[in-house]
Structure formats: C-alpha cells, structure tokens
Specification:
It contains 6 helices and no strands. The chain is mostly helical. The longest helix is centred in the N-terminal third of the chain and has 26 residues. The chain is flat.
Length: 127
Amino acid sequence: MAVEESIMRRQTSFDLYLEEQLKDADFAERFRKAGEAWDVAIQLASLRKKSGLSQKELAQRVGTSQQQISRLESPSYEGHSLGMLRRVAEVLGATVHVEIQRKKHQTPPIVAEPKSIYRVKRKDLRK
C-alpha cells in the first residue's frame, strides 16, 4: 500500500512544468479561463449524451445547426451566448446558472494623477 501511495504522489515532469508555469500570473489567468471553457464544453456534451441525442438531433430540437452544437461542446470556443445556452439547457432538461464574483484581493485601480480640478465653462444657450 505504501508503494502505491508514493507512486500516486510522485509528480510527473508535466506536473513540475505546470507548477512552474502557474507562478506566472498571466499564464495562471489564461489557464483558469481555459478550465472554465472546458467545464462548459464537458457539461454540455455529457448532458447531451445522457439524453441519448446526437449533436444533429440536439441541433434540430434547439433550432440551430450541428456545427453550432459542436462549437458549444468545444473547449476552445468562447462565443457562448446566454440565450443559446438556455435554449440548449431547456431541450436537455437542465438550467443555466451564471455566477459573477468579485476577485479576491482586488486592489483598487491606481490613477496616475488626482481628479482634474479644472472647471468647464458652460455656454449660455439661451441667446
């Protein structure tokens, strides 16, 4: 049992590479966003398959093309519209839940200079 545990804990070269890459904030953000797109794609494909529908059959019921369903199920696609997701979910007997959260440890934007103290003179438009 101890041997199995040590094998499971051993990191691969990819694990080490990914760990190093995730130290870069830009990479970490892109990786997080890719994970979100992957989640949507997996959920849609899984629900469709559990419903026993092909992409073409789902497309017909939703009133769209098979290509559009294929795009929605692609982890690299980022053009999901809320309306389309709702239509697909309705056909699959599901609902869509969107949650927008404030980022943790968000710092307020830094402005290079304070607000302008200049006043704009207004023209008298009554003439």
